[in-house]
Amino acid sequence: MKSTLTLPGFLRTYALPALxxxxxxxxxxxxxxxxxxxxxxxxxxSIEQQVSQDAELDETQRQQTLEFFRSVPASExxxxxxxxxAEFRNGLGEACSDVWQFGAxxxxxxxxxxxxLVSAAIALLCALAAFISRPFQYGSFVVGWNVLRVTGALQAxxxxxxxxxxxxxxxxxxxxxYYPKLILMVGILAAVALFHVVVAIFRRPPMDFEVEAExxxxxxxxxxxxxxxxxxxxLGTPPPDHILAGIDxxxxxxxxxxxxxxRTLTGRTLYVSLSLLRMLERSExxxxxxxxxxxxxxxxxxxxxxxxxxxxxxxxxxxxxxxGVLTRPIYHFMVAYRAxxxxxxxxxxxxxxxAADRLAASITSGRDxxxxxxxxxxxxxxxxxxxxxxxxxxxxxxxxxxxQRVALGFAEYAGSEAVHGxxxxxxxxxxxxxxxxxxxRLENVGQTLTPTDVVQVLLEPPTSSWVSAILEAExxxxxxxxxxxxxxxxxxxxxxxxxxxxxxxxxxxxVEKHFPPLTFEGKEAGLExxxxxxxxxxxxxxxxxxxxxxxxxxxxxxxxxxYLDLELQGGGVFKGKRSICLSKLxxxxxxxxxxxxxxxxxxxxEEHRASSRQAAA
Length: 617
Known about the structure:
Elements: H1 7-18, H2 23-53, H3 59-71, H4 74-79, H5 86-92, H6 96-129, H7 134-175, H8 180-202, E1 209-210, E2 214-215, H9 222-235, E3 242-246, E4 252-254, E5 258-260, E6 263-265, E7 269-273, H10 274-277, H11 282-297, H12 300-323, H13 328-363, H14 366-392, H15 402-414, H16 418-423, H17 438-444, H18 451-459, H19 473-499, H20 505-514, E8 518-521, E9 528-531, E10 535-538, E11 545-546, E12 550-558, E13 561-568, H21 572-575, E14 577-581, H22 588-616
Parallel strand pairs: 1-5, 3-7
Antiparallel strand pairs: 2-3, 4-7, 5-6, 8-9, 9-10, 10-11, 12-13, 13-14
């Protein structure tokens, strides 16, 4: 879709959260100084009390002694190597170790801040360089990714150490006690976060690009293959190695490996939509095919193939930072860098789309490009509408028949006002490229279409399409639509189980098909937990707990046993809690998984019911 993100919106969404990278180091720097001053104040207060009570000192000696200790903070004596402060330093003894820790904490905070500033400078320079040209874009991301993933790991190490330090010293300094469990918990979080970040740096994500389609062998579409080769010869680019036929609402080319069923295709692959080919005149389809071949000629697919693995690894790295909890500030910083880089990607991709349109217009015509864009955009939007309306239905469908519904309803849609709203600024769906709005693409090829022209284009049936050149086109479509509609029906069937209250016996049976009553036996005879879509019961409770009563659920360990604790709505301090001893069950993990699913279903049902009431109001 066309981006509506403004500069203030971008700063609010990405830049401000990125500043959290500096929050913990700044706090650590402040706390180190604060703790040092508290140490100096406490030592001075103790010394002043001792000096004031020392009867061996006269008033002059007492004042001179106090002036010395007031002019030389205890922390300075601890860190000094001067001989005249040796007695003071030795008198402080092991207390100086606290000062050394505060100093180390401050130094680590400074290192983290400097590292953050350096990372920000590198990220900004790399992001800006990406706007210069495509080679700069690739090179800047290579540099940015390789540098920032290392600085990110160093930040995780530094901030994790700071968090562990602070988990001890904050409570020790302010409350005169510390909590070993808190320190251990923070330490484990820091270690786990660092582990995930380091693993994500070196892990290679799967790069399978799976497409639901069938391979068009040359003998099954010889005329189409020959025509594509002729187009490529005119453009001066090698032809694709493979052509795929599917029913998605797009066309695309890629040089990445493509998995189709059990096969993995390498080289150049062209995907054509049989559903769209049926709507397009051959000349209009030629415009689309020439556009896609233009991406091959312009190096767009090769550039995408080089970038894709790094973008995937960066995405995996972001997931590790997000899941690390303590590394969330680093995550927001990296997201901001990725967002700026995505702006440059979008800019270059839109330029590539317009260049491919102009190239296709030179091979065919601007008229063919314009008509194909309108038809593809309208069909994609109408199919989305049909599927959205179907999925929103609250009753089971005997047959979803998406292809039939689209075919029968398209003419009415084409003559409605809705089509113009959908096409205004419409962006054609595509798995690799960001497409400019329709109006910009029409202007780019020197075409203008009035609303009347659009309706005429959409209602005018094609006299000849390339589908007729594919020997098994109808059989391929039937197989692909059958598989797609079966998945759609299954997804809708499951969605209904999440939406129903249920309100009648038929709906109850439907919910129980997906969420049947379950029983989890205890290790002792007679102990069991029963679970259904509406409630959970436990033999140690007086009555079942209905899901609408559950305010929150959590697990905890008490006296070496694991419990599932439920907090109930409006039950008060004592009656508002229920617990299931998981250690007494044979399949505790099974109960936890099922309970989460059943409670999640109930929450989803409540949200759907509330949104339905709001829509009806």
